[in-house]
Amino acid sequence: MPAPSQLLSRRDVEFLLYDWLDVAGLTARKRFAEHSRETFDAVLDLCRDIAAERFATHNRRNDVEEPRFADGRAVVHEEVGPALDAVAAAGFLGAAMDAEVGGLQLPQVVQTACAAHFAAANVGTWAYAFLTIGNANLLTAHGSTEQVDRFVRPMLEGRFHGTMCLSEPQAGSSLADITTRAEPRGDGTHRLFGNKMWISGGDHELGENIVHLVLAKVPGGPPGVKGISLFVVPKFLLDADGEVGERNDVALAGLNHKMGYRGTTNALLNFGEGAHTPGGEAGAVGYLVGQENQGLAAMFHMMNEARVGVGTGAAALGYTGYLKSLEYARTRAQGRPVAGKDPAQPQVPLVEHADVRRMLLAQKSYVEGALALVLYCGRLLDEQRTAESDAERARAGLLLEVLTPIAKSWPSQWCLAANDLAIQVHGGYGYTREYDVEQHYRDNRLNPIHEGTHGIQGIDLLGRKTAMAGGAALAALAELLSATAARARAAGGEAAELGAALDGSLGRLLEVTAALHTEPDPTVRLANASLYLEAAGHVVVAWVWLEQFLTAGDGEDDLRAGKRAAARYFFRYELPRTGPQLDLLAALDRTTTDLDPAWL
Amino acid sequence: MPAPSQLLSRRDVEFLLYDWLDVAGLTARKRFAEHSRETFDAVLDLCRDIAAERFATHNRRNDVEEPRFADGRAVVHEEVGPALDAVAAAGFLGAAMDAEVGGLQLPQVVQTACAAHFAAANVGTWAYAFLTIGNANLLTAHGSTEQVDRFVRPMLEGRFHGTMCLSEPQAGSSLADITTRAEPRGDGTHRLFGNKMWISGGDHELGENIVHLVLAKVPGGPPGVKGISLFVVPKFLLDADGEVGERNDVALAGLNHKMGYRGTTNALLNFGEGAHTPGGEAGAVGYLVGQENQGLAAMFHMMNEARVGVGTGAAALGYTGYLKSLEYARTRAQGRPVAGKDPAQPQVPLVEHADVRRMLLAQKSYVEGALALVLYCGRLLDEQRTAESDAERARAGLLLEVLTPIAKSWPSQWCLAANDLAIQVHGGYGYTREYDVEQHYRDNRLNPIHEGTHGIQGIDLLGRKTAMAGGAALAALAELLSATAARARAAGGEAAELGAALDGSLGRLLEVTAALHTEPDPTVRLANASLYLEAAGHVVVAWVWLEQFLTAGDGEDDLRAGKRAAARYFFRYELPRTGPQLDLLAALDRTTTDLDPAWL
Prior knowledge:
The structure is a homodimer of 600-residue chains.
Chain A: H1 10-20, H2 37-55, H3 59-64, E1 68-70, E2 73-75, H4 80-89, H5 108-142, H6 145-156, E3 160-165, E4 181-184, E5 189-200, E6 209-217, E7 228-234, E8 236-238, E9 244-247, E10 250-255, E11 266-271, E12 284-289, H7 295-331, H8 354-386, H9 390-426, H10 437-444, H11 454-465, H12 468-491, H13 493-517, H14 522-525, H15 529-552, H16 558-574, H17 578-586
Parallel strand pairs in A: 3-6
Antiparallel strand pairs in A: 1-2, 4-5, 5-11, 5-12, 6-7, 7-12, 8-9, 10-11
Helix pairs in contact in A: 2-4, 2-5, 4-5, 5-6, 5-7, 5-8, 7-8, 7-9, 7-10, 8-9, 8-15, 8-16, 9-10, 9-11, 9-12, 9-15, 11-15, 12-13, 12-15, 13-15, 13-17, 15-16, 15-17
């Protein structure tokens, strides 16, 4: 069982929150006026304790003893419930939500930091809470007052849990093709019929009820995504007092058995197939959320939050793997310096070898970069919500739009790469189930898939986000990066070198983006959107590292020297990867579009 | 259970063996005079059948029902033994060995092709045979006639199995630090005392006996690797007639439980700890192989073969994953073309999407490139053994030296990347244990670790192989690649473009190599040896693809058009990655060497 210090680095979290993001400064704003740095620290300490004492303790057992399908029920490990109860009891489910619905009204950036601790400790258990929080946020934003009272409040209390039900067996990435139908009953309710697939937390008995948010089509609506509506479909119906009553017709059809992330049930759910007949009638009872046919837009509220959340989870898994491999590299003696291999001398710790240092620096640059990125997104959400001017709030919203696909995909790709390196640092030991890192690697492999695959995020970034609002989101991002580069150039020395490198890569990215946007054929324009996503991600994370470099200043402590070293690593080893990617994009390469599939 | 056509592509194997490597032409040589293309084809067909019918059938069960430690014994899945018996019965264990020791005297390149089929079908089961073959080859080359008669012949018959015992708990990559000691008894035998770790196939009851090849130190010898000797230590001693008799003091202390590759037992073995007392005396009975203190050189005979074998296994796992994801992409309908998303139209197969094609082409370029590379190494071994002139044989030997670290590492890195893409093409389904690709990914993750990690291979290539024989090995490689580039330039058209690109990358590689070799400080020179290995690997595989491009010519069939498309992909998407890597190497970057580990 790892110590709290092996989940995330406390000094790094404090550096990012306070030195870089000035989170303490948020307490000057009305929304956060009840808080102080002391309350933030107390919250983070409590998170660390719960993560270490309730989550990390059963991380491996959650993997080995994965949820079972028994008598139509999903049985999860007995330690999952108490861990989630501890999160609820501490108020973390509503950490960033309004006090009036039962939240703590903490800044989102603090909640993100909390989430990272839980995910680092046990992502399989944390996912239940993560989904409940996203569900509650969506319903609070788009649901009726009655829906908030009946479903959100019990979720924040930890009595109910939440899910999001989008995919179906024949419709994963292609939501236009969902076929679950919702028939209006004329009494304000609908009855749902269909099958949902890949539903995380889709069934279990951890609380009194499960609040499913379900995408479905009302017959007669427009085809494709324009005909999608959103419904609350509770596992158990509520009586007039909000007490759990009759079973709704949502039935567990089976569980998927995954390579990793095994602690989270992943369910196939049948809606309205007759396992139950609530009120004696066929169909699962659902309550429309918001307007008919506007379901996808509402669900994107949750999806966008979930995407940054996926990035947070990926960062957390990468981060704990890094710390564990660092500990291993410091304590495991193996081999001798290449200059002077005297077998009479004792072996040296792994960390003395240049290649091991490279693997550690790479991990550090990925995981601290990813954590900084998702915290920055949390900070943007706080800006969007509480900044003084309309313009500042709008700018934060635009930045969040353009950064969301990157905050989802970059950590998913590179913190998985970090876990791969964590295994490699451990050598053969890392490949065994005696060490944690192999599980982190398996767990993290989910992240490039769920909540929109890597390919989907690439199309979102290049096809939509960089073009939205007349290019305003991209312009806001460019301005943000340029401003930092300018500060760095003004600072002189190594900062100026890094600033110039960022300017160069950003300039090339913008040039290539403009060239792509002038390509009339969308097939060609988007053919390499995944590479565009990767290149843009590396440029953004170079900015994240330059920000940290500047924040570290010339501080001589290990933390600040380490920030400078990791920034240096990122600019020397990582940012140059974008050169060939952007050249390929600029060439509007048609290798894939011209391919005859018979040649494969 | 996959069809044989989902293991490796028959038409590709034939293209590589006959069109590219002219393996049929080998039958003109005395060693292979008994063979013909027909016998090669018959051998390959038999391999395919055994792989599909005996190996693939229990690949998943080998994973789920991994070997158990029970009563001091390792119990493997019941289908492993019959599969290995089928391999032995077909004579494949001695496929490339001399007829006089019981081999089939086939070309090594044909044996490599056979091995790839078995590994693609079930790498966990195949590993037992793979180790036995390597063991038998080593003993045949370095053992006495008596050792060959008593141990090699029964191995080729499938009655005995073989292992290699190098690592110890405190000495993995650092063989200088092994502490197992071998005390001479004065009667020509030694008694061994020590612990060996990570021993694949280290214990089981698949045959009558296990022949361990064990590195140990004779007391009083030189320190470090210069004091290492090699011993045969059978699990059961043999009587004068070669029949299995008394149990030797080799005891199974435990099994490692791995993330993948689970079908192969991975054992901790105790030698001479008193579990048995053969002849009433302490110590495990061992027989010196070759000369005292020359053990490491002899073991490298097996290690080099094993390294190419690891590359072959990695290629095979990547290859079958590619074929399975291709099949999935052709049959699974999801989404619509980005130009014209009409929800009234049916969904299109995944293979219609540019990003999926990119993932398939990337896999194709990795797995067919890797298979071609390891077959080429097999062909070099045949050249080394049978080429007409001393000069040709020496040249083949040099090429094999310099290519071995690449043939080990490049497939291990990129065919694992291929398996990652195979999962991604499958979407969520690929992350479940209902599909094969997640297991291939877990299995393949071992390959960058065992038989010398990625880091060790990098140091071998940059520190030793490129400098050996006054640079003759590197020069032979450069000449090989240049000659192909020149042919391509002479061919004009697209071939000339690719030839020019290869020339450019090769020139840069050689320039950077020369610069590195002039750096006096080995710590700095070798600091980025892993990146050197990666860059050199991509240059070599670009050559492999150019060779295939030229071999395909302007043939209009799908196979040849596909070879051209994959070569195009590799030159456009992959080879440019080497630019920033080589620039970093040229800069003799000191980011890692100057790092204070306290900053991590």
